[in-house]
Design goal:
The complex is a heterodimer of chains A (659) and B (325). In chain A, the strands form nine sheets. A seven-stranded mixed sheet of chain A has the order 4-7-2-1-13-16-15, with no helix packed on it. A five-stranded mixed sheet of chain A has the order 18-19-20-22-21, with helices on one face. Chain A has a four-stranded antiparallel sheet with strand order 5-6-3-10, with no helix packed on it. With 659 residues, chain A is an alpha+beta fold. The longest helix of chain A has 24 residues. Chain A contains ten helices and 33 strands. Chain B has one domain. The chains are: A alpha+beta (659), B mainly alpha (325). Bound molecules: zinc ion. The site of zinc ion has 4 residues of chain A, from helix 3 and helix 4.
Chain lengths: 659, 325
């Protein structure tokens, strides 16, 4: 705490210098100076970049590997397109073309370029290029590359592209893969995975249509904006200690700026670029940013940058809900009801990425759970804290209708897909490298929902304070250092204890489910002992007698799922007495025999600590059936059916079919 | 009581008065509706007893639906409501009309019961048409049944034509333009909402018009000397085409009359958690009253259609000339 305060004082002196840092910075590895001009007709960005790479690995690098992400949209043969719907026209396609790659001395490397397919499964993919160098870059050496490129953005899909006059440019420039001690780490662009890159600084100059002056959202800050010839505006942006650069512009943006200074935390300029038809959501966006910065600043580390930009994309732009360093996109709609919790929840989710994706920058292509999972859990906590528990929203005929009488508790209410996956598909454990997962559903459920449920379960089992403390220490210790699953588990074990670590490992290494079930709950009058009792001369025969007043009860709990979890078993007896037993949950089953009052029911995990349990209904059993609930539903169903039948008589069409 | 005049409020009142006279037949229709609902929900209700009676963990469902517990229930019993994947599409409203016959489980049962109920209601509508056309014995059940025998099948025919037309309108206005009105290429959100609502209102308008034609055709059937459904349909179409706005308003007036008590009930009625029997008795009576009012409003529409058609015919008939005098 003390150290943090001292650093905060220091950053306040720096004012708006970039960045206001409470976290020790790391020296830059991959920095870019880019100049690019936008052609609104062709939807292209034509430009040149100067890449400055410092080899901070321990090995010589004989070549460089570049990501040309937009080539994922080049044609339907790309690896990316396997996860996309069929193209709807020429606008669906995009590309990133290397025109010239050269060293500063003029050595042209363009002819040496080859395309990589590390898994060997798709020779047609053009998203990963290898450029052999005349001589290797040794550890500590700096390499400068001049790259001329032309990028065409597709009609917005998968986080990037345009819609009408809205443009969101993500993954738009040739970008170095991540340099590691094992060499370059780069993956062809998959539809279900994201990114991994080194930190550096970005100095980007864009030539854009004059009408978007003042309406350009960037990673970092716009430091210069000047009119250029031919109705253009020259926009220069600068960002430090970031691993990517995205920008967006639209003449329709309504720009809001607000300076947020949470108590005891650095000041942050929050910029909101809003669609005019989303005005109703403005205050919810800003409130989420304001209160989220304060909350995450306390739960994790202070927000590491002086500026935060929120881009609100138009509906159907394909750019919704995506995070980039210091900038993210939200998602909302004209009539989005406040009771649904949006865009608060999505804003808090993307804001949390500023720490896990932006600052920690773990490998999203292989270990997406470290980013999306931690983000899903912590943003669910933040959403509930700030906006309360949301209600489900159904949309009928373009009108969203909140079902106010229902609640969708987070993360459970939005993570049931993970339990379906664990119950029915079981295709991949979380720790399977993300890009190797069977399908998008496996990635989504594992990285997001399953990890969120797992962490919430650990918080409820081993205590939420230790878990928060561990995640805070993880964020502090590995800021700007690209931590791995091992790093996270190490800190977790160290700070939250071996049980917490063990539980997370169990949830991450299995593709299956947790499922505890009470399979027997019986009770009968205890009979006094009968037969030959006593030994030797004391042996005496006692005839079976009438049962006593007390009861003998038996409860059996079985572990039906692969995942073991420590659970409580609560046994309820006549007269209101309850007995609670703890079980480490490891064996296949556990039996308890209790003599006392009549057993009424037994429930395993009555406080719902293990949210990975796929079947909550079998968590309990009564000794005598109680038809109340089913009766209530029978009654509701009959009235529903009566009204549906009458509707049939009227039009002979069910109502649900109409939206 | 006799109310005269063909203005909308008068027609509305005349419809209600006519329907009230047939209260015995209406109670019969209600009994049919309730019995069918009981039968069609019985398998699901009994399955719920199997699943929930032993489970104290289901107590969270007593007061009403619970999003998380409900997900657990449907996961542990994927076929509970029928086809799990199609259920999602129904919820989204994206299940194509052509897929409906392929539903399984309780949903398929409901669909079948729905058509059966629609058919029975159409047969009974023949009886109502006969009674409304008659000057006397409007409340007589025996006369009602003889009208069902006489006019039931022609009325069913008219109902089937109406049903086909409404399904066609659904395809035309709701299903075919769905993609276009929800297109991601629309520039503004309000275009999307506006076009979608337009889709809904176009369908409601068309369905209302078809309903009006069905009602006027049944009225014509009742008034005609021969039970020819084709002639009745023709005169129903002709009648509505001659007065489309008023016919739609009449339809809408009875639609509101039918749905208003239901809306009140849904908003204000307490929920039964399965325990208190006196509350259950009270709730069931209230619910039957609500359904009866819906049946009553639907029948009253026919009564109003009849009064209107008869009034219009009387007004257009030249006064009989007394040549012989
Ligand atoms: Zn995310």
């Amino acid at each position: 705490m003390h150290r943090l305060k001292a650093l905060l004082g220091f950053s306040a002196l720096l004012g708006t210098a970039f960045p206001a840092r409470a976290i020790p910075r790391v020296p830059p590895v991959a920095s870019y100076r880019i100049e690019a001009a936008w052609d609104g007709e062709q939807k292209t960005l034509v430009g040149r970049e100067t890449v400055t790479f410092v080899n901070r690995t321990s090995r010589e690098l004989p070549d460089v590997v570049l990501h040309l992400y937009l080539n994922g949209f080049r044609n339907t043969r790309s690896t990316l397109w396997r996860g996309l719907p069929p193209p709807s026209g020429s606008a669906a396609f995009g590309f990133c073309e290397l025109k010239r790659v050269a060293l500063p001395d003029g050595t042209d490397l363009t002819r040496r370029i080859s395309f990589e397919t590390p898994a060997g499964d798709n020779p047609d993919d053009r998203t990963l290029a290898r450029v052999p160098l005349p001589r290797p870059v040794r550890p500590g050496e700096t390499l400068v590359l001049e790259v001329d490129f032309e990028s065409r953005l597709p009609r917005g899909v998968l986080r990037t592209g345009w819609k009408d006059d809205f443009v969101f440019a993500g993954q738009w420039f040739p970008k170095l893969a991540k340099a590691t001690d094992a060499g370059w780490r780069g993956r062809p662009f998959h539809s279900s995975t994201e990114f991994f890159a080194d930190f550096g600084s970005y100095d980007v100059t864009l030539l854009l249509p004059a009408e978007v002056k003042g309406k350009v959202a960037v990673t970092g800050r716009v430091v210069e904006e000047a009119d250029d010839a031919a109705e253009r505006v020259r926009v220069r942006a600068h960002a430090e200690d970031v691993h990517d650069f995205a920008f967006s512009f639209s003449p329709r943006f309504e720009v809001r700026k607000e300076t947020v200074a949470p108590k005891g935390l650095p000041r942050v300029d929050v910029l909101l670029f809003l669609q005019p038809d989303h005005r109703r959501s403005r205050e919810r966006y800003l409130r989420a940013a304001r209160e989220g910065l304060a909350l995450f600043g306390t739960w994790l580390t202070p927000y590491p940058y002086p500026v935060l930009t929120i881009v609100d994309p138009p509906t159907g732009s394909g750019a919704e809900a995506m995070e980039y360093p210091t900038l993210f996109t939200g998602a909302t709609a004209w009539l989005s009801p406040a009771a649904g919790g949006e865009p608060g929840a999505v804003t808090l989710h993307e804001l949390a990425h500023q720490w896990f994706q932006g600052m920690l920058a773990s490998d999203e292509t292989s270990e997406a759970h470290l980013d999306e999972g931690l983000v899903s859990w912590i943003s669910a906590r933040a959403t509930t804290r700030i906006f309360g528990t949301p209600s489900p929203v159904v949309e009928a005929f373009g009108v969203p209708i909140p079902m106010r009488s229902l609640k969708r508790p987070l993360p459970e209410g939005e993570s049931q897909d993970a339990l379906d996956q664990a119950a029915f598909s079981r295709s991949d454990p979380v720790l399977r490298e993300t890009w190797r997962s069977l399908d998008d559903a496996a990635v989504r459920t594992n990285a997001y929902s399953r990890t969120a449920l797992l962490l919430e379960s650990v918080a409820r089992t081993s205590g939420e304070q230790p878990l928060f403390a561990a995640i805070r220490e993880y964020a502090r210790r590995f800021a700007f250092r690209h931590p791995t699953t091992g790093d996270f588990l190490g800190v977790l074990g160290e700070v939250a204890g071996p049980e917490a670590r063990d539980l997370v490992e169990r949830g991450w290494t299995s593709a299956g489910a947790a499922d505890y079930a009470v399979t027997r709950a019986s009770t009968r009058r205890a009979a006094p002992g009968a037969g030959y009792l006593g030994e030797g001369p004391r042996r005496a025969y006692r005839a079976p007698a009438a049962p006593a007043r007390s009861f003998e009860s038996t409860v059996v709990v079985q572990r039906l799922g692969e995942i073991a979890w420590p659970v409580e078993v609560e046994m309820r007896f006549e007269g209101g007495q309850t007995v609670t037993r703890r079980w480490d949950g490891r064996a296949e089953w556990m039996r308890w025999r209790i003599t006392g009052p009549r057993l009424v029911s037994a429930v395993v995990d009555p406080r719902r600590t293990c949210l990975l349990d796929v079947n909550r209904l079998n968590d309990g059993l009564r000794t005598e059936p109680d038809p109340t609930v089913a009766r209530a539903w029978g009654h509701r169903l009959r009235f529903l059916a009566q009204n549906l039948l009458e509707l049939f008589a009227l039009v002979a069409v069910l109502p649900g079919a109409s939206w | 009581m006799k109310v005269k005049g063909n203005a909308l409020p008068f027609l509305w009142v005349r419809g209600l008065v006519a329907a009230a006279a047939t209260w015995k037949a209406l109670l019969l229709a209600l009994a049919l509706n309730a019995a069918l609902a009981l039968v069609v929900t019985a398998p699901l209700a009994s399955r719920l007893h199997d699943l929930l009676d032993d489970r104290p963990t289901a107590d969270g469902l007593a007061k009403g639906w619970d999003v998380v517990l409900g997900a657990h229930l449907l996961r542990s019993e994927p076929g509970l409501l029928g086809d799990r994947a199609r259920l999602g599409e129904i919820e989204q409203g994206t299940l194509p009309l052509a897929e409906w016959p392929r539903l399984s489980g309780p949903l398929a049962g409901l669909l079948a019961a729905g058509f059966l109920h629609a058919a029975l209601s159409a047969l009974l509508a023949g009886g109502f048409a006969g009674r409304f056309a008659a000057e006397r014995e409007r409340g007589s059940l025996a006369a009602f049944f003889s009208d069902v025998v006489r006019l039931g099948l022609p009325s069913l025919f008219i109902g089937l034509v109406g049903l086909a037309a409404i399904l066609g309108a659904f395809l035309l206005f709701v299903e075919l333009p769905r993609e276009a009105t929800l297109s991601p290429d629309l520039r503004w959100d309000w275009e999307r909402t506006g076009l979608s609502l337009l889709r809904l209102f176009a369908f409601l308008g068309a369905a209302g018009a078809i309903r009006a034609v069905v009602a006027q055709s049944r009225a014509a059937l009742g008034l005609a000397k021969t039970a020819n459904p084709v002639l009745a349909l023709a005169s129903g179409v002709g009648f509505v085409l001659g007065r489309p706005v008023k016919a739609l308003f009449l339809e809408a007036a009875f639609g509101v009359t039918a749905l208003f008590p239901l809306a009140l009930w849904l908003v204000f009625a307490p929920s039964w958690s399965g325990g208190d029997w006196r509350l259950l008795a009270l709730l069931v009576s209230g619910q039957q009253a609500v359904v009866l009012l819906r049946l009553f409003a639907r029948t009253a529409h026919l009564g109003a259609a009849m009064a209107w058609m008869r009034g219009a015919r009387e007004a257009s008939r030249p006064a009989p000339a007394k040549i012989e005098a």
